[in-house]
Design a protein that fits this description.
346 residues, alpha+beta, elongated
Length: 346
Amino acid sequence: MASHRRPKQPSRTRVTVLTTAAAAAVALSANAANAAPSEKLSKDEVKAKVDKLYEQAEQATEKYNGAKEKQQKLQKEISTIQDNVARGQEELNKLRDGLGSLATAQYRSGGIDASVQLFLSSNPDDYLDKASTLDQLSSQQVDALKKIQDKQRELAQERAEATEKLKDLSATRTELGNKKKEVQSKLAEAQKLLNSLTAKEKAQLAEEQQRANRSSTQRVDLGDAPPASGYAQAAFSAAQTRLGSPYVYGATGPSSFDCSGLTSWAYGQAGVSIPRTSEAQAQIGTRIYNQSDLKVGDLVFFFNDLHHVGLYAGNGQILHAPRTGTVVRYESMTTIGGPFMFGVRV
């Protein structure tokens, strides 16, 4: 016999869900149909955005350089303190050994006279106040115990200092990692924009950059400005030998550089040690605020946060490592992309 059951009706909830989903689909379709297609950026617009990202990457690079320099300094300081602690511990051991059987008994078995235990207690600030115990020890023993307590205090201070510097080092390493990620993020974003161009547009941009690099690494009219000093001339001459070397963030030569890496390397070749970062380099020497007073080899700083530095070359030109995708080259101070702040005569 055929079944005469009524077909199962969809529940009210199911109908509501299906109706809502259908309505949403219709709305999305309508929005998609009405939405304007995303406009493709032109080659020049991409270049402008990429240049801005490269500038931001350079800002982060200088912060990265500062954190890296601080890390290296802290590591050296910690190493020195640890060496001092090790030597101090040796001296302390010798002082203890010098007490002879008295000190040996104290440090090996702890079973010596209570008066000596007082002197060797963890509270060295009180022991000399206990005048009654001094009568129970010879002057030689008192002197030896005083030296031991002084050395213990000294070692405790040095260990505490090392602990604080280790905490600072940990924070600096975190900062270093964050700044490195920031630089890499900006460079990746720039590369993504460049990848959005057609092959023809990419080739055009590459050719433009190559032309700029070629023309600005040749001998340009530098005028006849005198060098700031013999050291400045030597530094500038050293930098000239690096014309055409690629910009690489965090690099200090001799085959690649970032902006402050080039200036610190150049002065290093002249026998003058200057700080690693542009911000730190801005704090040395004599400041020159009038561009007309600049001399060859002076450091020149740009942007309000001083994140870019180069060497004055004369005739309104600087010799510098501009940014990612460029090489060490000459460039007019008017085309840097940020305002000239001041020069520094080392």
